[in-house]
Structure formats: structure tokens, C-alpha cells
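hiii so my PI (J.) wants the whole complex modelled not just the main chain, which honestly fair. so below is everything: two entries, each one labled with what it is. i double checked the lines twice but i was tired so who knows lol
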Amino acid sequence: MMKISKSKIIIGGNTAAIRAQKLLRQSGIPSTTIRIIGNGERGCAYGIETDEERVRDAIFVLRRSKIPYRFI
Amino acid sequence: MIYLDNAATTFPKPKSVITEMTRCMEEYAGNPGRGSHMISQMAEEAVFKARETASKLFNVKSAENVIFTKNATEALCLAIFGTIDKKCRVITTNLEHNSVMRPLHRLSRDIGIKIDILDATKSDDELIFEFEGKLKSDVGAVICTHASNICPRVLPIEKIGAICKKRGVPLIIDAAQSAGSYNIDIEKCNADIICMPGHKGLFGPTGTGMAIFCRDFDFSRLRPLICGGTGVDSAMLAQGHTAPESFEAGTLSVPAISGLYRGMEFVMQYGTVAIREHEEKLYKLAKARLCDMGATIYGDFSSGAILTFSIPGKNSSELAAELGERGICVRSGLHCAPTAHKALCTGGDAVRISFSPMNKPRHIDALTESIADICGKI
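here's the output for the full assembly
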């Protein structure tokens, strides 16, 4: 079975990450909220993980909803 | 026991609140935003659900604009100390609680703000006229109550908000006595921040409150009230401005917030209009009975349901204590609102009764019969 590659998107706070995940679900994009340890010099953050092939769609939803994001 | 002190905190709470808090303690009372394991995530989901419900109830843009606090006082301190950092003029009213007056007094002492206190016992038109006259370029904020905690006075916050917006002045509203019994739409009010307890009209447990922020609020200019761990940007020494986490340092009380979620759900099911109508009906009944007994009622206004009175010749605190001995819970004293008591000429002590949907007309019967008995007015 082929393994689907996943992409992680950093959102920041866990509240915004949960909201992002719910908005993606409403748009039919499967994702999970994740805790990102390390996060460069900043320390812990929350984000979402989604299929690599759906990242473009996910970004569209985040932008439309004005949820700030960045990639790992 | 008859409980008529709902302006202090509502009691009893809906059964759903108690059940959810118990379920939380048994099943998901983890530390939200602090881990990736199942219990932490369940706690996070529960807190998020509460934020989402609050955002629907008050027409807030998103869950991030809802910041949990311990009570309305903490929410007001976050709003006041978090946004006013330089000498300016602040407009408020004479019906404010000490949770507004004391932070303003401190800012007056520490950074020299000037406080203009408007007379909110005047009519809506007169009050609006006064606001218009006072809102000059040196005004840094307007902070006012939505509903008084000692008399049935509800301020025209939408009109006040419209003037503030026109003049570009931030508006902070204290909704301690109105959240849950009035439809409050942050956008319609043109308010920047609305502060409220979770344990009064929203039927959550004590230890809950919220500061909710308008759509375009710039959180980068809000100073956190307390600093510490947030689960976000942990490598940074600076507290940050990630809403809501940066402004909720320390572990949230998940059981309390879960209870608040069910309390808000109760309000939405019952309906704010039905709650208000029920309370106003009880207010009118109690007022008529007390007037028949020769009581002095403080504040003759046409809306609201908080009744403060005294019986001529009877010390109010003694009356409240004697009612307490008979199992009737009311509150006497200054109700943490000395300027409001002064404005209403209570003499500094009066008995307050306040209602919730849990009260029935028979509670008013028992109250007035007891007062008549205590005061020898049968």
C-alpha cells in the first residue's frame, strides 16, 4: 500500500489550530491538529497536518478565513 | 431555602452544568494546550466548544476573540489595564461597580488619567447628549456598565457605541448583570471589548468569566494581565500576543469552563428574551408588594429586574440577616457600587433582590410575608 505523504502547517495557538481543523473539515479536507515541539527558536506551537496533495486547498481555506499560518 | 441573590451569582445552576462538570472531572480534565495526548486534546476540544458557543451568543468573529478569565472583574482589569497605558481622559458613569471604579482609580493615581463620571440615572436622551458633549479628542476610552447591579437601569449601549465609533474612541462594556438576559451583539454595540462573568446570567460555576473582543481588535496592543506559561512559543521570554492563549497564562479550569459551556447552552435554549421577561415579571410583582408595605424602592426606571429597597425604620443589613435566618437569601450593604448608592440616595445600605429563571412567584410571596412578619407590618 502506498503511504500518503503528510504536510505540517504551523498555526500558532491551539484555539486557532482547532478552528482551522474544523474549517478544513467543513471544506472536505481531512486534517488533524498537532502539537509542534521545537518550532525553531520560538518553542511549542500548534498546527495541522494534512495530506500533501491537499495542502494547496488547505492554504486557500486558511487564507479565506484569515488564519495566519506558516510551514515547517 | 429561597435564593434571591442572583445578581451576585445565580443559584441553583441547571442540572446539565453539574452533570458536565462531573463528567469532565471523571473523563477529560486534562491540561488544555499543553500536550498531544488524548486527555489534553479532549480538554482542548471542550474549551474550544465553550469559546465557540460564546462567540455565537455574542456574535464574536471567532473563538480566538473569546478570552477566559476567573470572573468579570478580571476581564475588566484585562480590558482596562491592557489597553490604557498613557495619560488620557476616560468617560464612565455613576452606576459602575468597583470592578470598573477601582482600576480607573489606580490608573488615575499611577499614570494620571482623568475620569469623567456621567450621571446614568438621567434619561437615555440626556445621557447620550452628555456623552456627545464629553467625547473630545483627549478621551482615551469609554467604560460603562450595560445594566446596573443595584437598580433596573439598562444603558443604551448601542447608541453609546455609535457615538464612540464615530469619534474613534474605544468602548469597554461591563455586562456583568446583562449577559444571559439581554441579546448582546458586539458588532451592533460597536464595542471593542465586552466583559462578563460566567457564573451569573450565563449559569456557569463561580470562577468563570470572559472578555470578548470585536472583529478587528488588534491584540498586539493588548497587554496581558498576567505572564507565564501558555503552551505556545515556550522558548520565548516575552509573553507574546497570540489570542487567546497569551492572555490566559496558567492552566485553565476545564471543569469550570465545561460547566460554563452547558450554562450558555441553557441560556440559548431558554432564550434571553424569555429569561428577561420572566425576571421582569417577578420584579414587577415584588415591587408592587413592597410598595404596598411602604418600602422605599431605589431607582425608578422602566427596564431591568434588580430591585433594591429599604423599609423605613428598619436597618437594611439587619433585615437581610433576619431574612437569612429564615432561609431567604438576599444581599444588603453597598453591593460594591458606592457611587451608584450615592446617586440613588440609599444612605449606604439597602436590601437587594435579584432573580433568575429558577425563581417562582411563590418565592416573592415568601419574601414579602417574611418582611411583613419581621417588620410587624401584617
